[in-house]
């Protein structure tokens, strides 16, 4: 699943444990995150590989 961080506009690869592929916690300030169909735009290791 892909998650978009609304304040930054960056799309991350989401994981079921509540984090992104690069380790960002999506449960903290969960209102900043939405599901997305856009391509992953995070360049950090774990999201974009």
Polypeptide structure, described:
The protein has 49 residues and is mostly beta strands. The chain is built from no helices and 3 strands. A 3-stranded antiparallel β-sheet has the order 2-1-3, with no helix packed on it. Strand 1 (2-5) and strand 2 form a beta hairpin. The chain is globular. The two termini are 14 Å apart. The mean pLDDT is 96.
What tags apply to this protein structure?
single chain; 49 residues; mainly beta; 3-stranded antiparallel sheet; 3 strands; globular
Secondary-structure blueprint:
Layout: E1 2-5, E2 10-13, E3 33-36
Antiparallel strand pairs: 1-2, 1-3
Category by helix and strand content = mainly beta
What strand line-up does the widest sheet have? 2-1-3
Helix content: under 10%
The largest β sheet comes out as: 3 strands, antiparallel
Task: Please report which band the strand proportion falls in: under 5%, 5-15%, 15-25%, 25-35%, 35-45% or over 45%.
Answer: 15-25%
Overall form:
globular
Average of pLDDT: 96
How many structural domains?
1
Note poorly predicted spans. Answer: none
What gyration radius follows from the Cα positions, in whole Å? 9 Å
Give the gist of this structure.
The protein is built from no helices and 3 strands. The chain has 49 residues and is mainly beta.
């Amino acid at each position: 699943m892909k998650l978009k961080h609304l304040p930054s506009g960056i799309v991350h690869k989401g994981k079921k444990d509540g984090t992104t592929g690069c380790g960002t916690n999506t449960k903290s300030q969960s209102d900043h995150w939405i599901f997305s169909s856009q391509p992953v735009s995070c360049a950090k290791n774990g999201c974009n590989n």
